[in-house]
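Sanity check

After download, print the first record. It should look like this:
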Amino acid sequence: MAVNEAKLHEFMGKALGDIGAGMSAVLVLIGDKLGLYKALAQSGPATPAELAQRTGCAERYLREWLANQAAGGYVAYDAATKKYRLLEEQAMALADETSPAFIPGIFHVMSAVFKDEPKITERFRSGQGLGWGEHDKSLFEGTERFFRPYYNANLVSSWIPALDGVEAKLKKGAKVADVGCGFGASTILMAKAFPKSELLGFDAHGPSIDAARKRAQEAGVAERVKFEVAKSTDYPGKDYDFVAHFDCLHDMGDPVGAARHVFETLKKDGSWMIVEPFAHDHVEENLNPIGRLFYAASTMICVPASLAYNGPALGAQAGEACLRDIISKGGFKKIRRATQTPFNLVLEAKAG
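Expected structure tokens:
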């Protein structure tokens, strides 16, 4: 077969960009862990020597790190002053944990999946799964840090208001179950916004529940928020006004069983909110940068998690039609897309 040299060069350029990004990802992780971005954001432009003084890090390492970050567009460099700085937009993404654009958490997730690569490679051969708790611990912290800013920006301001009458119930005082709550970021956020409501967070991963309890204590809501280790198919309690699953239904070994348990524990006039990664129903519609990220995460995390419990392995790009089918099999008659973002579908389900 004849090789089209122009297409080959185009592909090699794309691969070079990916290789540079992959090699640089670990440096973003280091910058986050050592507070280098925050030091630049808080104290202004700096030479490598000045940044070394601010952070207590070795100047020679910082010289190379800063040059890499400038080459990748993660910091700005002024050749006249020999100083590096964070632009406002870069600071929002790399140094401000309250910003909806804050991204370092995903680099912790990337660290975890690289460490777990030998396990997943073996699963490709065996077809077996890898449970959530079997991953490197960086995954748990990274997931919380990645999702928390996005929930802060959307959950109370747009997602809950898009649901039918839920906001009014929460303000008045409602019983809420946050299933698959992880470190409790979404649960604590709702507790702060709706102080009259009773919130219970459930997760099958014990260490995550321990972390959630600690986070609730630090946030001053521990008296109104309870966290328990429980599966999505048997969490305790009944007569919930509102149940939420954030970015987790597709990971589960028995998503239909999870839907059925929501149906059985929800009040007749209650609502179930299902937040899932945004996806269209056909592969060809998801072949874009967001789909690329989600398919990668799905390969390394989501599909193995479901297969670990002989589940259907819906994957992070399940799509709305598939999700509706799962929800309806759980007993729900009314299902609608309440709202969406470039990264999430937000579905609302009601019993009838």
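If your output differs, re-run the checksum step. Summary of this record's structure: The CA atoms of residues 94 and 249 lie 29 Å apart.
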